[in-house]
Amino acid sequence: MKSDDIMEEEIELMKNGKRLDGRGPGDLRPMSITANVIKNANGSAYMEWGNNRIIAAVYGPSEALPKHTANPDKAVVKCRYMMAPFSSISEHGRPGMNRRAVEISKVTREVFEHAILVDKFPGCEINIYIEILQSDGGTRAAGITCAAVALASSGIPMRDMPYSVSAGNINETVVIDLNMIEDMASDADMPVAILPRNNEVVLLQMDGSFTKEQFDSAMELIRKSGEYISNLQKKALKEPYEKIIDRYA
Amino acid sequence: MSIKMITEEYVSERLKKGIRDEKRGHFDYRKISIKTGTMPNAEGSADVQLGNTRVLVGVKIDIGEPMPDNPGEGTIITSAELLPMASENFEPGPPSPESVEVSRVIDRGIRAAGVVDTKSLGIDEETVWNVYLDIYVLNYDGNIFDAGSLGAVAALLTSKMPKYDNGKVIRDEKMGRLKTNGISTSCTFAKVSGAILLDPNGNEELFAASRLTVSTDENRIRAMQKGLGGYFTQNELDKAIDVSFEKFGALRSVIKESIGD
Amino acid sequence: MRTILVPGELISDKTMHGEGIIVENGKSYASVIGIYDSERQGFIPLESIWSPQQGENVVGVIDEAKLNTYNVNLHSPYKGVIISKYAEGGLSNGDIIEATVRGLDKTGVAVLVRPRVLRGGKLISIKPSKIPRVLGRGNTMIKQISDYTKTSISIGMNGVVWLNGGDIDLATDAIERIQSEAHITGLTEKIGEMLKSNEKR
């Protein structure tokens, strides 16, 4: 089968300081989050981030099964990140978990092992499911950002709510939030997740090329964008309750 | 760990009095809503809400080689995912026999009615368009079969063909809609405490002795599947088929409305 | 002033104690979504995971009868256990029971006493954080529902509710509406109106 050759010709990713979709280097794509979208789950959220569309849902804490997976001191976090076979702009994907999905599931789980107060639920498991229904670059960051809202909506206690976003390098310009075309053609891609309260970096991956200075400005851009993303997460959680405030006002 | 919220005794006592959840009659559907085009990266998509059951269907259209026995004709490849987020009782992992059955039953209803004009999918002797139909169960409250087949038909009817140019697929330029011929719908029944119920919800499916899916178009039965360990009598089958034909018009209207037709 | 806070947000520069609060360097932060009342200096979680408290009523299902104990599925992170000698007449697998929490044992299992078998009917699952609203102040909400519908109702603080008899569908609708509208003002009156308008039909 022939694959779709999106990147066959050289694409100029940046022109006069503007990116292909008209954004400046520090501009995020438009995004929105809605909490509580899956009725059966303990917590859930739906997120649109550019052309990415993601659902995250949380089950538990419940008894860890099979029993040998249980930890007597804390809850075990289980995470599954998966891409729908119809999610890509190009060809139909293979169903099931590939190596990429296994790795993303693992690093995502590790983000939440730190964020969740796991020692409150010894012997239990917490399941996080992230389904990428439509993808356009940056799905692991969007998945983490969305899952954080799903967890908060479930009432599972966390020390802080992580956000995630990636930074990249386009012709030696540091940019935020790469879309798929930029991701494929850029000189660097660096997804990062942060617990904002103490600026704890809980996910860091990178490939490509950055000078130390570029790395520093990428981190600065990530933190600045993180303020916006964090506020959006908070808004998604608070909005359904805002009427309570009115009642007590 | 999940807990059984309801007993068979409770369901059967209520059915004896003719009572169903949501105050439904035995042959009433729950509220159905379908939104098409929710996933624009896919060539077609539909998001179906049937009571609390929610199913997302995505269609991708790719080039491939024809089946040796059907040169010049494209193929429909159907899969179903019972996502673990949809229910405490769905496990992550490779497709379960249940999900394989769902996809095959939905596939047969669509294929037998010739909903997709597969002959129109031939490009040249070695190249055809293949239609990938993926049924994603997001929230489970019974009757995935009908929710999935409504979504599948709505997604197919709104699917757009990519452009083919010299061995390459160009998706930014669409070449009109996927060629379809008519609509098929399915009606799924569960036999619970001896009663035949259309559109069983999750609690009813928990105690279903047997299950029957009947796919029809306007005039013909197109596919059937009896499931689970119980049985149906001839009279019960006759009734289920009659009801399926009766419901066809209403279900077709729901699909047509969702595709803006 | 009442403010909604989400996990990670600062509640107070002082050390506070209570559910949904974590303390770091003497400051208090929310670990769950909740409301902070600055006058009363209290934080009330809006979503939470239930943990058993002594004296609470729970509803669950017997899922294992052992030699000296019964295991109870409480549809929560916590398992329940009933010591056989406290269960007069014995219990069977699948029995729906109501019981009182005596405490947590060393392994984190909820020890339950005074089990009562609930026969017939059905269970529904409600978010434990919404159970206080379902009960209402001084149990007014739940009393109103059972009076109108003639349904017997047992409420477990673990978020499992048992219903039997009467207009069970109306009672279920009312409880589910409380869950989804727990944040609306005048809910007791609104549920009262809903029940009355259904009664007339």
**Count of individual domains of chain A:** 1
- Under CATH, the topology of chain A can be stated as Ribosomal Protein S5, domain 2
> What's the domain count of chain B?
1
Query: In the CATH hierarchy, what is the superfamily of chain A?
Result: GHMP Kinase, N-terminal domain
Low-confidence stretches of chain B: none
- Rg calculated over all Cα atoms of chain B: 19 Å
Helical percent range of chain A? 25-40%
- Overall helicity of chain B: 25-40%
Unreliable stretches of chain A (pLDDT < 50, length at least 5) are: 1-8
Q: Could you state the CATH homologous superfamily of chain B?
A: GHMP Kinase, N-terminal domain
The CATH class of chain B is identified as: Alpha Beta
Mean of all residue-level pLDDT scores of chain A: 92
Fraction of residues in β-strands of chain B: 25-35%
Proper CATH architecture of chain A:
2-Layer Sandwich
Q: How widely separated are the two ends of chain A?
A: 63 Å
* Gap from first CA to last CA of chain B: 45 Å
User: Can you tell me the CATH architecture of chain B?
Assistant: 2-Layer Sandwich
Q: What proportion strand of chain A?
A: 25-35%
Main sheet overview of chain A: 5 strands, mixed
Find the biggest chain interface.
Answer: A-B, 36 and 39 residues
